[in-house]
Design a protein that fits this description.
The protein is mainly α and 133 residues long. The protein contains five helices and no strands. It is flat, with a radius of gyration of 18 Å.
Length: 133
């Protein structure tokens, strides 16, 4: 594990903790815990991909190829569906005036930071796996 790997791990840890902090601040600062419903989705978002996402083969099957599996596609769809829910729930709560606009902004910022964390992790893990071939 080189210096670059350590920096990536530290960056990911900082991004993740910042996202969780924004999530909690969105609830604490406005004394309303309804936005914490999104915290449940953060746990549920990767579950369909974990259960259905592994193709069992080399993992590089393209869409439409003969090795593509319907369960993998269903897992990706359910993951995307629940990821959209993590943005839609605060918006619906704000529209129904259950939470304030400030809490909505904090929740959307948390979703943005946590989504960026996943993208950075995916980028660096794909870069590391492609360097072995």
């Amino acid at each position: 594990m080189g210096l670059s790997d350590t920096r990536v791990i530290l960056l990911l840890a900082l991004m993740f903790t910042s996202g969780v902090l924004l999530q909690l601040l969105g609830c604490v600062l406005w004394a309303n815990w309804w936005p914490m419903l999104v915290g449940i989705l953060y746990i549920l978002v990767p579950m369909p991909y974990i259960f259905f996402g592994s193709s069992g083969g080399d993992g590089y099957a393209l869409y439409g190829s003969s090795t593509s599996n319907g369960w993998v596609d269903a897992g990706k769809f359910l993951t995307g569906f629940s990821a959209v829910g993590s943005i839609a729930i605060p918006a619906i709560l704000a529209h129904a005036q259950v939470i304030t606009t400030g809490a909505l902004v904090m929740e959307l910022a948390a979703a943005l930071v946590l989504g960026a964390t996943v993208l950075v992790y995916d980028y660096h893990s794909s870069k590391d796996s492609s360097s072995y071939y």
